[in-house]
Amino acid sequence: MHSNFKKMTHFFPLILCVVLLTACMNAGEDNPESSKDPNASSDENNSANEDQTENVESDSENEQNIPNSEFVIKELNIQSEFTITEIPIGSIFLKSSIDMDSSFEKEVMETLTEFNAVGTEDGAKLTLPEDILFDFDSDELRPEADEAIDQLAQVIDTTDDDVTIVGHTDNKGQDSYNLELSENRANAVLDALADKGVEKNRMTAEGKGASEPIAENTNSDGSDNPEGRQKNRRVEVTVHGFNN
């Protein structure tokens, strides 16, 4: 009996190891998370982070794609007092204070520049060459002149003062004929401005014929000067009160 007990004491540690090993294996089966790939949790976290990044980028793109027409409309509706202060037009500074929006301001300044406006003692004088308004030796406005008349009316509307329209010719032909032609052209411009809404009682028209040239009709050698003649055939429109 003593011998059998001795044998059992030899096997007891081995049996204990088997029991412990079995218990550990059972515990592993009861906890399924312990059998997962250790990288799985990291992959899930990365996936979640990527989803969050995509959402942030999507929100950013949506913010960038928000139409800005609302802000454009607000800017276009802004009314401001525009003051022409020491802005050189031609050779003289014009000064005026008028209420207008930015687009109207730009159009007025473009008209003053296009028609070589210069300041006078009480206003601004714009010069329109013959070829903008009339065909040669004609007092009927060309269809293309309508745009120039619109521009003139826009400048005139910036004041409530009078407007003087003066027609000029070169010195070809008889003086009486040139005088009549220049008067008819000035009146044609007056009537066209009236059709655009400018009050007739604000405007006066007169013709000067060839009496006030701004360029030489002939060269120093006596030959004809077509460019000079072209400059002399013109209509001058003075908007009184513009630079007051």
How many angstroms does the end-to-end distance come to?
138 Å
Number of strands: 7
CATH architecture of one domain: 2-Layer Sandwich
Globally, the shape reads: globular
Radius of gyration: 46 Å
Helix residue percentage:
40-55%
Which stretches are poorly predicted, pLDDT < 50 over at least 5 residues?
1-11, 30-42, 56-99
Strand content: 15-25%
- Overall structural class, as computed from helix and strand content, comes to alpha+beta
The main sheet orders its strands as 3-4-7-5-6
List the helices and strands in order: HHHEEHEEHHEHEHE
What does the largest sheet look like? 5 strands, mixed
Fourth-level CATH superfamily of one domain: OmpA-like domain
For the record, the CATH class of one domain is: Alpha Beta
Here the CATH topology of one domain equals 60s Ribosomal Protein L30, Chain: A
Chain-averaged pLDDT: 74
Number of helices: 8
InterPro entries: Bact_OuterMem_StrucFunc, OMP_bac, OmpA-like, OMPA-like_CS, OmpA-like_sf
Organism: Gracilibacillus kekensis
Subcellular location: Cell outer membrane
Keywords: Cell outer membrane, Membrane, Signal
